[in-house]
Design a protein that fits this description.
Elements: E1 9-15, E2 23-33, E3 44-48, E4 51-52, E5 58-60, E6 67-73, E7 85-94, H1 101-104
Antiparallel strand pairs: 1-6, 2-3, 2-7, 3-4, 5-6
Domain ZP: 1-109
Protein name: DMBT1 protein
Keywords: Disulfide bond, Signal
C-alpha cells in the first residue's frame, strides 16, 4: 500500500523487463476502484484508449521506451471507502513500428455523419 492525502499528486512508473531492447510501453487504460477484486461495479476512469479521462491524468516523458511514466491527483470514492485500488493496462509494441497502437497516442474515434 501507498498512503497519500486526497488531492496529492501521484506519480507512477511502469517498466518492462525484457532482453529485447526494441520494445516500448504505452499506457492504454487506467481505472480506480474501492474494491481490489471488482473493477466493474464502482469504478473511476482515469484513462481510456490512451486518452486522459480525468483532467489531472497526465503522461510524462520517459528516459527509455521500455518505461512509462504517468500521474494523477489522488481522490477518494465519496469519502466512504478507506482505499482506492488502481488497475492499468499497458501495451507492449515494437519501438520503431510507427503504425503500432503505441505510436498512435490517444485513440479517440469520432463519429461521422452518414450521407443519405
Amino acid at each position: 500500500p501507498y498512503y497519500v492525502d486526497v488531492n496529492q499528486n501521484l506519480f507512477l512508473q511502469a517498466s518492462l523487463h525484457s532482453s529485447d531492447e526494441n520494445l516500448m510501453l504505452f499506457v492504454d487504460t487506467c481505472v480506480a476502484s474501492p474494491n481490489s477484486s471488482d473493477f466493474k461495479t464502482l469504478v473511476y476512469e482515469l484513462a481510456k484508449s490512451g486518452c486522459a479521462s480525468d483532467p489531472s491524468f497526465a503522461l510524462f516523458p520517459s528516459p527509455r521506451g521500455d518505461v512509462a511514466r504517468f500521474g494523477f491527483n489522488s481522490f477518494s470514492f465519496m469519502n466512504q471507502f478507506p482505499s482506492v485500488f488502481l488497475r492499468c493496462e499497458l501495451l507492449v509494441c515494437r519501438q520503431h513500428d510507427y503504425s503500432s497502437r503505441c505510436h498512435q497516442g490517444c485513440g479517440r474515434r469520432f463519429k461521422r455523419s452518414a450521407d443519405s
